[in-house]
Each structure stands twice: as structure tokens, then as C-alpha cells.
Task: inverse folding
């Protein structure tokens, strides 16, 4: 096997990557980074890029796409709807430019939910597991059904919360769902071998709309979170560009079934 030149290891040109939850937060940051790396990007999200909170970021992302001769599109999708997932993924594969076949999936759609375990309504438990875990499964399986080549890469966003309980945060459903995502990736990696590598990316606390909502609910959480970080701060979405590009590119060609923890050292102690 001729090794890829080091200068091209992280290149993502001439391919399309699917990004769920890509209208805002982590998903949008990674989508922009993928465009800058030369990929076309298809974003799947429940919310529209025309939403007043998202429209300016989306317009900037479209400008990035144009500057890199790349294509950015959005498909409305609820990742828990199996039939809709199958048709949306199918549509993304068939509308990819012939020069840019679909080769990767970055699954970022997810929700958090805080409630003491004894008070969680079964419907809410199911909703969290449905979006975070079942959505990851449905998207991955649809991707694998449509992907006919070799060397695909699926990255499922899990969380450090798939490995530890977050001190002071009552989020049993979220943490159980993320532990499930890590184990799901191992099983898919085993089934799909060198056809599609499957890994998880497990972030620590990131400052996004998801955590802003929690901090609005309980501002004192921030101190507890910072106490757990060896770097003494929350992360920003752009700090996950390197890890995501690494996992989606040839730079990680011998990595599958692994969980890449990027948490400021939170789970190290
Ligand atoms: N923010 C953090 O501190 C943190 C830490 C670890 C892991 N994560 C994970 O990172 C991922 C992104 O989180 P974020 O902070 O960017 O959150 P966010 O709320 O800013 O973005 C999540 C996106 O997912 C979309 N989404 C939600 N439900 C959906 C559904 N059913 N179908 C399609 N799209 C749906 C939302 O519309 C939104 O655009 C999530 O999986 C989250 O669990 C976040």
C-alpha cells in the first residue's frame, strides 16, 4: 500500500460528508471545517437554516462553501424517523456530485435533559434515547446501506458522559444514551470492517446552545464543571475540528471501533 503523503493526510476534497445536527453548535462548526477541507457537506437537521437564530451563521457557512468551490445543502430531517432517514440519506447519495461521492458521516444531532432519575417521565427517557442512540443507529445503518465503496468513515458524537457520571448533573437518560452510542460504534466497526470505519468522538463540556440552556437553568453548574477540568475552562466548538477531521480522513486509517475522548482532561482524574 502506497502511503498517503503527509501533506494530504487530512485532505477531504472530492468527497461529500453528511452531518446531522449541522444547523448550529458542534455540527455547524464541523460542517464549516469540512468545507474548508474541500468536502461537500449535506446537513440534516430538524431546524431550518432560515431560523432567525441560525440564518447569519448559515449565510457565513455558504460563503465558506463558495470560497472553497464546495457545496453546502440542508435536508429537513428528524433522525428518529426511520423512513425519513432512509429517504434523506438516499437523496444525499444520489444528489452528490459525481466528483464528490459520499464517503463520511458526522452524527452530531443530540439533546440533553436534566431531571432526577425518580422524576423522569418514560416518554422523556425514550425521547433522549431515541434521538441520541436510535438516531445514531438509523443514520449509520442508512449510510452503510447506501455506501458501496471502500474506506468510508462514520463518526458518532458521544460524550465523556458516556464514561462517567457528571458530578452534580441529574442526566441519567443522556449518559446512558451516550454510553450506548460508544458501544454501538464498536459493534458497527466489527460488522463493517475495512469497508466503513466507525469511531466515536467524546467531547467534554462545550459552550453551545445546549449547555447555555443548562447554565441558564442552573448558573452554578459552571463552577462544578470547571472544577473537573484539568485545563480549567469549557471548550469551544472549534476545538473539535482537528479531532473530527482526523477521524473522517485518511489520517486515522487504522482506527476503528475506538472512542476519541477530547475533554480537557475531565475523565483523567
Ligand atoms: N455541548 C456540550 O457540552 C456537549 C458535550 C459532549 C457532547 N455533546 C454532544 O455534541 C452533539 C452536539 O451538541 P451541541 O452542543 O452542538 O447541541 P446543539 O443543541 O447546539 O445542536 C444540536 C443540533 O441537533 C439538532 N437535533 C436535535 N434533535 C434532532 C432530531 N431529532 N433530528 C435532527 N436533528 C436534531 C438540533 O436541531 C441542533 O441543530 C450532541 O450529540 C451532544 O450530545 C455536547
Result:
Amino acid at each position: 500500500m502506497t502511503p498517503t503523503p503527509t501533506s494530504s493526510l487530512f485532505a477531504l476534497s472530492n468527497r461529500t460528508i453528511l452531518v446531522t445536527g449541522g444547523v448550529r453548535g458542534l455540527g455547524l462548526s464541523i460542517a464549516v471545517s469540512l468545507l474548508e477541507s474541500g468536502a461537500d457537506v449535506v446537513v440534516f437537521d430538524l431546524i431550518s437554516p432560515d431560523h432567525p437564530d441560525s440564518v447569519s451563521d448559515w449565510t457565513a457557512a455558504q460563503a465558506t462553501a463558495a470560497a472553497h468551490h464546495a457545496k453546502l445543502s440542508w435536508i429537513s430531517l428528524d433522525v428518529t424517523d426511520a423512513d425519513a432517514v432512509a429517504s434523506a440519506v438516499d437523496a444525499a447519495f444520489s444528489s452528490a456530485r459525481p466528483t464528490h461521492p459520499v464517503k463520511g458521516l458526522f452524527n452530531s444531532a443530540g439533546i440533553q435533559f436534566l431531571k432526577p432519575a425518580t422524576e423522569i417521565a418514560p416518554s422523556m427517557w425514550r425521547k433522549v434515547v431515541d434521538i441520541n442512540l436510535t438516531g445514531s443507529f438509523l443514520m449509520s445503518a442508512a449510510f452503510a446501506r447506501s455506501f458501496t465503496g471502500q474506506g468510508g468513515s462514520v463518526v458518532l458524537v458521544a460524550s465523556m458522559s458516556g464514561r462517567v457520571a457528571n458530578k452534580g448533573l441529574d442526566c441519567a437518560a443522556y449518559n446512558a444514551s451516550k454510553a450506548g452510542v460508544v458501544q454501538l460504534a464498536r459493534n458497527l466497526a466489527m460488522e463493517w470492517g475495512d469497508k466503513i470505519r466507525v469511531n466515536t468522538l467524546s467531547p467534554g463540556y462545550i459552550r453551545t446552545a445546549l449547555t447555555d440552556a443548562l447554565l441558564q437553568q442552573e448558573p452554578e453548574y459552571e463552577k462544578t464543571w470547571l472544577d473537573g477540568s484539568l485545563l480549567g475552562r469549557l471548550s469551544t466548538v472549534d476545538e473539535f475540528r482537528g479531532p473530527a477531521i482526523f477521524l473522517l480522513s485518511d489520517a486515522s486509517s487504522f482506527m476503528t471501533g475506538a472512542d476519541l475522548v477530547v475533554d480537557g482532561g475531565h475523565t483523567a482524574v
Summary: The chain has eight helices and seven strands. The mean pLDDT is 96.
